[in-house]
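Here is the promised in-class demo. Please do not try to memorize the tokens; focus on the logic of going from shape to residues.
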């Protein structure tokens, strides 16, 4: 079995390779078409080889009044006076304390600007980390498949609280070469959010990460003469040029956003309706918001995000590229200089795929191609249900 070395970069754009001479020297390059969504969408797609309409993870929260960890908060439906940012912070920490089994990247995430009375409607989608057994309920991940075939692997850089890439990856020693070594580099995304991906701080970071990867590649090459190596990212970044106060927009139409069950993330507004009247009011108000558009059934089909129920919203509005909401479940978006999660059609939404092995023809590859490409390198069969394809050029071409 020929070993495989992979490097994952969170949010690295193809255009940023100009700041990373070693990665830019890779012989074969493709643009990576992202999924419509954020990390909780992209990672299951690339680790399982299927789109969101199969793995069913499209947002960090889902509508689930039965499984919610916030059942205790139902009392706040009648105690609105005690509902403020301070009490939400305290009660969020209280919930995290008793949800220790959740080892996902985001744990039990913040709900800063959502009234406590709505918390009991929602449940966390990810209850474990991407590389843990059983991460997805309906499909095995690459990690699960390798375990089932007794194929050893190591993941370096994904351990929260263990330091940044220069600590986790920089100090890693190749004491034993495993069939798959996976390096996870996650800091380009937060740097891009804070400084944009063309900011000097981010460029300096990318240059140092490029040197780190070159060092690890050369160290690995000293132990192995024949191996496959590829580098990939999940999405790009788009500079923020508009901040939208959806609360003010509702007030301008004589309504209050807090009347409705909703979740506002960075650039999505999701609504769940108890009556047809609520739906009509919200639809009218959203239709007048020039900065965004309501996702239609055609959008859901085109981007493989049709769901079997309303877990991610009865009505969903997505802001146009460059737009962010000012008051979200995460906070107030004052320092976000760059964002992702917009339509995959925009070139700035693209991630990348690099290799030293000849690739199939075409400009774009997809996140679902990662799993079958990895399995093919390891000599393992690709499951029939997989949506992706092997990216290596066939020897017969």
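The designed amino acids, position by position:
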């Amino acid at each position: 079995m020929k070993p495989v070395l992979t490097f994952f970069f969170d949010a690295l754009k193809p255009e940023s390779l100009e700041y990373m001479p070693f990665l830019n020297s890779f012989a074969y390059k493709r643009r990576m078409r992202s999924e419509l969504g954020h990390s909780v969408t992209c990672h299951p797609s690339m680790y399982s080889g299927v789109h969101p309409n199969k793995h069913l993870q499209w947002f960090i929260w889902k509508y689930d009044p039965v499984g919610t960890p916030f059942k205790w908060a139902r009392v706040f439906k009648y105690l609105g006076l005690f509902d403020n940012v301070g009490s939400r912070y305290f009660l969020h920490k209280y919930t995290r304390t008793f949800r220790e089994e959740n080892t996902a990247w985001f744990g039990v995430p913040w709900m800063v600007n959502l009234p406590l009375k709505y918390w009991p409607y929602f449940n966390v989608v990810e209850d474990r980390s991407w590389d843990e057994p059983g991460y997805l309920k309906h499909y095995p991940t690459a990690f699960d498949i390798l375990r089932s075939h007794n194929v050893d692997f190591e993941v370096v850089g994904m351990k929260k609280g263990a330091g940044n890439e220069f600590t986790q990856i920089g100090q890693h020693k190749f004491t034993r070469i495993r069939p798959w070594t996976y390096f996870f580099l996650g800091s380009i995304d937060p740097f891009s959010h804070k400084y944009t991906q063309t900011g000097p701080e981010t460029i300096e970071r990318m240059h140092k990460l490029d040197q780190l990867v070159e060092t690890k590649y050369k160290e690995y090459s000293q132990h192995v003469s024949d191996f496959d190596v590829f580098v990939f990212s999940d999405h790009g970044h788009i500079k923020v040029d508009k901040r939208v106060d959806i609360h003010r927009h509702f007030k301008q139409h004589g309504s209050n956003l807090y009347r409705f069950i909703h979740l506002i993330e960075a650039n999505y507004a999701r609504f769940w309706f108890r009556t047809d009247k609520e739906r009509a009011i919200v639809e009218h108000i959203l239709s007048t918001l020039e900065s965004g558009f309501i996702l239609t059934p055609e959008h859901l089909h085109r981007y493989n995000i049709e769901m079997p129920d309303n877990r991610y919203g009865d009505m969903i509005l997505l802001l146009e590229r460059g737009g962010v909401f000012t008051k979200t479940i995460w906070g107030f978006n004052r320092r976000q200089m760059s964002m992702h999660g917009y339509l995959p059609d925009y070139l700035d939404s693209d991630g990348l795929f690099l290799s030293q092995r000849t690739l199939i023809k075409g400009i774009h590859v997809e996140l679902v191609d990662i799993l079958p490409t990895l399995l093919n390198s390891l000599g393992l069969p690709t499951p029939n249900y997989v949506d992706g394809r092997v990216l290596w050029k066939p020897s017969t071409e």
